[in-house]
Structures are given as structure tokens and as C-alpha cells.
Design a protein that fits this description.
The mean pLDDT is about 85. The protein is an alpha/beta fold. It has two domains: about 90 residues, Transcription Regulator spoIIAA, CATH 3.30.750; about 240 residues, no CATH class. The longest helix has about 40 residues. The chain contains twelve helices and four strands. It has a four-stranded mixed β-sheet with strand order 1-2-3-4.
Length: about 375
């Protein structure tokens, strides 16, 4: 039997009997054609004669519930199967809360709204940094409620467990820089200067930056997902109810851990990048490792290494703060956790690039 919806009036109640097989592939009635111009004070649905149903019947029940809610009349779904009633109510709720994108706004309105949103996010980010600063001050005074076991565990995760990927990326970056530099230096007979290029580039820029980008994609996303899942499970609310600050209990150990491990990872990345350049210089340019090392030491000194270490500390703090902030901003559902992890990676990499540009101008101004 094909799908049917028969309506009859019993006093002030419109009773709709659903029958037949409801399938998306067949012809199914819609609520508007069934109710017509009727103006009942209540609607009752029953599905005693339904032999098969799928989403098409859910859409019908949802439209009926939405119509009743819009008219302000009672909708009796008690005679429907429980699963049908539940799904129909969820569909009706989506019709009520669904928002359509308004494309009629002018360019100035869109720019203004985007600016206001950016300012709101910047204000929230600065407030979060302020909370972390206050928590750090309480840590120094021994009043932060800080658990060093959590910090040591996070240091292992973002430090020792990140060595394989940092090793691979840094070594390949050193090889790439050496090949790229050799293309130009060969034309001037300065093959040996490839050691200077690799040494300066890795210690001042690429070592810290590549380690920061790797941690942004690995550790920053993990922090956002962990804290976002805790927020979705209402664990953050439980900590707040118990009087425990989420910033001091969750954020501070993670930010401190990645801030402490980033300089070590950056130095390690410098060594691997220099080793990759040394291999290219020996295999492709015929430069002995001893000559490569001596030439590199003539250009690379302690200020160059210090520049990379300073950058790495800032990059580590950026990664930790971005991941934890996006986790705390996550919505209380699975999709929100995924979006927070993605946003943490994008935010971390963006701020790392911005910080690197600021450092370039600053160090040039002070002659470092």
C-alpha cells in the first residue's frame, strides 16, 4: 500500500491517520496538503497502519510539529512509536532553530561585522593571556595549585615523543636548503659558502620555526582536542564548581611544558638541519665534513644561537596558548572538538609567522 495520510475532525481535534509504506523513493503526502485550511485547536497523529517508514515519514511528523508550534496549538504524538516521535521532534527543532544565511547585507556591513568579530576574539585572547599571566605569578609564589606530574607528563609527550617527526623534517629542510643554495653559489665558485648558508638559516630561522610548526600541528591540536573533549563532557564545569581554576589546573602545565621543551627541540632541529646540509655538501659538492664544519663556525656564533632559542621559547608559548584557548572555546559536541583542533593549528601557525616577522624587524633594529 502506498503512503497515505487521512485527516478527520473529532470536535476541535484534527486526527491524522498514517498508513502504508513511507519511502523516499515513492510518492508521500506533505503536511500542508493534508491540513489544508483547517484551524483545529489540537492535532493528533497516529501510525497504526504504517507498514514501513524512513526519513520521509520523519519529515512529515516534523512538519506537523513545527506547524503546531507556529500556530500555538497542541500536537499529540503519544500514539506514534517512540523512535518516530523522537526523530520527528528533533527534525521539528531543527526547523525552528535553523538560520538561513543572509546574503542581502552590503559589503560595509560584512566588513563591520567581521571587524567586530575580530576585535571580540582579540579581546578574548588578551583576557586569556592575562589569566595565564596571573596563574604564572601564583605559580612563582607557590599558590597556583600546580601539579608537576602533569607538567612532566606533557613534557614527555611534546618533547621526547616529538623527536622522530622533528628529526625527519629538520634533516630534510637542511638538505633542501643546501641544494637550493648550491644552485646560486656554484655560479660564483663559492661552494664552501653553503656551510654558512645552512648554519645561519638553521640557527636563526628554520630550526625554531620548523619545530614550532610541527608542534602546532601535533601538540597544539592535541591540546585543543583534549580540553575540548573535557568541556564537551562537562569536566571543565565540574572543576569550576569545585573552585578549581581550569587555567591553573589544565592550561598552565601544558603551556609550561611546551615552552620548556621548545628550545631543546629547536637546538636538536638545528643540529639535524646542519647535518643534512653537511651530507649534501659532501655528496654533491665534494666538501669534506671537517671543512664544512670549520667554515660554518666562522659565521655562526653565540648570538645566532641565542636568537633561535629566544624565538623557540615564544613559538612554544604560542602553540600552547593557542591550543588551550581553542579547546576552552570549543562547543559541547563532537563537531566542536574537531573544529577547535583545526582552529588551534591555524592559529598557532599564523601567530608563529607573525611573531617571526616581528622578531626580524626587532633584531634588525637592535643589530642582533
Amino acid at each position: 500500500m502506498e503512503a497515505r495520510a487521512t485527516a478527520r475532525t473529532e470536535g476541535d481535534v484534527l486526527e491524522v491517520a498514517l498508513q502504508g509504506s513511507w519511502s523516499l523513493g515513492g510518492a508521500t503526502p506533505r503536511w500542508g496538503s493534508v491540513v489544508g485550511d483547517a484551524a483545529p485547536k489540537a492535532v493528533r497523529l497516529r501510525a497504526d497502519g504504517v507498514s514501513h517508514w524512513d526519513t520521509s515519514l520523519i519529515v512529515f511528523v516534523g512538519e506537523a510539529s513545527h506547524w503546531c508550534a507556529d500556530k500555538g496549538i497542541a500536537c499529540d504524538l503519544e500514539r506514534l512509536p517512540e523512535r518516530m516521535r523522537l526523530l520527528g521532534g528533533q527534525f521539528a527543532k531543527s526547523l525552528v532553530t535553523g538560520e538561513l544565511n543572509d546574503h542581502s547585507r552590503s559589503l560595509f556591513v560584512e566588513v563591520g561585522l567581521a571587524t567586530r568579530n575580530a576585535m571580540s576574539q582579540a579581546r578574548e585572547f588578551l583576557g586569556f593571556i592575562g589569566e595565564c599571566w596571573l596563574a604564572a605569578k601564583r605559580l612563582v609564589s607557590g599558590q597556583a595549585g600546580f601539579r608537576w606530574n602533569d607538567c612532566l607528563s606533557e613534557m614527555q609527550k611534546c618533547g621526547a615523543m616529538a623527536l622522530p617527526i622533528v628529526s625527519l623534517i629538520s634533516f630534510l629542510v637542511g638538505i633542501t636548503l643546501a641544494y637550493s643554495g648550491a644552485i646560486v653559489l656554484r655560479r660564483f665558485g663559492g661552494d664552501i659558502w653553503v656551510a654558512d648558508l645552512i648554519g645561519v638559516a638553521m640557527t636563526r630561522e628554520m630550526g625554531a620555526m620548523m619545530a614550532g610548526i610541527v608542534l602546532a600541528g601535533r601538540t597544539g591540536a592535541a591540546y585543543a582536542a583534549e580540553i575540548g573533549s573535557m568541556k564537551s563532557n562537562e569536566e571543565i564545569d565540574a572543576l569550576t564548581v569545585l573552585g578549581i581554576s581550569p587555567v591553573r589546573f589544565l592550561v598552565l602545565p601544558r603551556v609550561l611544558a611546551v615552552g620548556l621543551m621548545m628550545p631543546l627541540l629547536a637546538l636538536y632541529a638545528n643540529a639535524l638541519g646542519i647535518l643534512g646540509g653537511m651530507m649534501v655538501a659532501y655528496v654533491d659538492l665534494g666538501i669534506p665534513p671537517a671543512a664544512y664544519w670549520i667554515e660554518m663556525l666562522t659565521i655562526v656564533d653565540l648570538p645566532d644561537i641565542a636568537v633561535g632559542v629566544i624565538k623557540s621559547i615564544v613559538y612554544g608559548l604560542i602553540v600552547g596558548l593557542s591550543g588551550c584557548l581553542r579547546g576552552l572555546q570549543s562547543e559541547n559536541n563532537a563537531a566542536g572538538v574537531g573544529q577547535s583542533a583545526t582552529s588551534a593549528v591555524v592559529t598557532g601557525i599564523l601567530y608563529i609567522i607573525v611573531a617571526d616577522a616581528i622578531f626580524a624587524v626587532l633584531f634588525q633594529a637592535i643589530g642582533l
